[in-house]
């Protein structure tokens, strides 16, 4: 069992930056690949970024590539999502997720554990 708690969301103007954190507790964090997803009302949860267990491989949705950076610190059992050059369309609830696997996945159903989400609002 892994418990995930996101933090760092908030209100920011377009062009600004936010850094989300995902603190993990429970089973060894290093056994789990991580992902970030986001959701807005009336829409399905969508993939944002993912990272493998070592942090050596990352993958991004086209909509955030070049603006967002996913990373992890296994010693601190924490994952991060650095979000730069934010746009109003980045607004949503951001969730971190963990899967008991080495590699990256963009698929919601392949993640085993989810955080409660943190709201990100980007004003124009």
The count of helical stretches stands at: 0
The coarse overall form would be: globular
| Structural class by helix and strand composition | mainly beta
Number of DSSP-assigned strands: 11
**Low-confidence parts:** none
Percentage of residues in strands:
over 45%
Q: Helix proportion of residues, in percent?
A: under 10%
Cα(first) to Cα(last) distance is 40 Å
Radius of gyration: 13 Å
Average pLDDT number? 96
Described by strand count, sense and barrel closure, the largest sheet is: 7 strands, mixed
Order of helices and strands: EEEEEEEEEEE
Give a quick rundown of the structure:
By secondary structure, the protein is mostly beta strands. It contains no helices and 11 strands.
How does this model look, in words?
The chain has 124 residues and is mainly β. 0% of the residues lie in helices and 51% in strands. The protein contains no helices and 11 strands. The radius of gyration is 13 Å and the shape is globular.
């Amino acid at each position: 069992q892994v418990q995930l708690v996101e933090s760092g969301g908030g209100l920011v103007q377009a062009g600004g930056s936010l850094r989300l954190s995902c603190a993990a507790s429970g089973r060894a964090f290093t056994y789990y690949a991580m992902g970030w997803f986001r959701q807005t009302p009336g829409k399905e949860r969508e993939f944002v970024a993912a990272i493998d267990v070592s942090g050596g491989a990352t993958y991004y949705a086209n909509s955030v590539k070049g603006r967002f950076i996913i990373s992890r610190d296994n010693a601190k059992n924490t994952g991060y999502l650095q979000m730069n050059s934010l746009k109003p369309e980045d607004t949503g609830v951001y969730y971190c997720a963990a899967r008991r696997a080495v590699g990256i996945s963009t698929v919601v159903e392949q993640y085993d554990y989810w955080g409660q989400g943190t709201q990100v609002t980007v004003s124009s």
